[in-house]
Write a structure and sequence with these properties.
Belongs to the elongation factor P family. It comes from Flavobacterium artemisiae. It contains no helices and 16 strands. The protein is mainly beta. The protein has a six-stranded antiparallel sheet, with no helix packed on it. Strands 9-8-7-10-11 form a five-stranded antiparallel sheet, with no helix packed on it. A five-stranded antiparallel sheet has the order 14-13-12-15-16, with no helix packed on it. A hairpin with a 4-residue loop joins strand 15 and strand 16. The chain is flat, with a radius of gyration of 20 Å.
């Protein structure tokens, strides 16, 4: 058993008969009253996100996990296939476990957290950013640049991203996997 002082991002806990991963947390010590911890929890079975507040010193049930590097192979319906980089063992994971499945490109390395008690995969940590090629972008309209104008673009994985007007088909762009937003154009 651990307490609220051990809470950190990425920690997997057992809560309300389900397994949750802590996405974000905030220790709050008000001027009046006891301290508490606000958390945002993501269910690793259903993918639902909920907000919860733990009082300071509250005991939490931490799940022991191991992290392994897996390479993304291919999608098949709602299942995504991965291969362990060390043992070459293949696993398939449901789409709702992944944070940004539409930004996964074949060959991308991800970190998979596995429950040590049951040997079942719990969550997939994507790289912080991915570089993808733009396959379709509407032409930018000249004179439409008064303030940070953006347009829709489709990348090679099929995801739709808002990009600045100067991005064209064939350009490679860097995308933040946490928010799914455009970061910068990549020159090679």
């Amino acid at each position: 058993m651990a307490s609220t002082s051990d809470i950190r991002n990425g920690l997997c806990i057992k809560f309300n008969h389900d397994i949750y991963k802590i996405i974000e947390f905030l220790h709050v010590k008000p001027g009046k009253g006891p301290a508490f911890v606000r958390t945002k929890l993501k269910s690793l079975t259903s993918g639902k996100v909920l907000d919860n507040t733990f009082s300071a010193g509250h005991k939490i049930d931490v799940i022991r996990v191991e992290t392994h590097t897996f390479q993304y192979l291919y999608p098949e319906g709602d299942e995504f296939h991965f291969m362990n980089a060390e043992t070459f063992e293949q696993i398939s994971l449901n789409k709702n476990i992944l944070d940004a499945p539409d930004l996964l490109k074949e060959g991308t390395n991800v970190m998979v957290q596995i429950n040590t008690e049951t040997d079942l995969p719990l969550s997939v940590d994507m790289p912080t950013s991915v570089i993808l090629e733009v396959t379709y972008a509407e032409p930018g309209v000249k004179g439409n640049t008064a303030t940070n104008a953006t347009k829709n673009a489709t990348v090679e994985t099929g995801a739709s991203v808002n990009v600045p007007l100067f991005i064209n088909e064939g350009d490679k762009i860097k995308i933040d996997t946490a928010s799914g937003s455009y970061m910068e154009r990549v020159k090679e």
